[in-house]
Amino acid sequence: MVNPIAKLLLECGAIEFGEFVLASGARSSYYIDIKAATTNPAILGEIGRSIAKDQTFDMVAGVAVGAVPIAVAVSLASGRPYAIIRKEAKDHGKAGTIIGDVAGKDVLLVEDVTTSGGSALYGLETLRAAGAHVDRVMTVVDRESGAREALAEKGASLLALVRVSELLDG
Question: CB–CB of 99/50 below 8 Å?
Answer without folding.
Answer: no
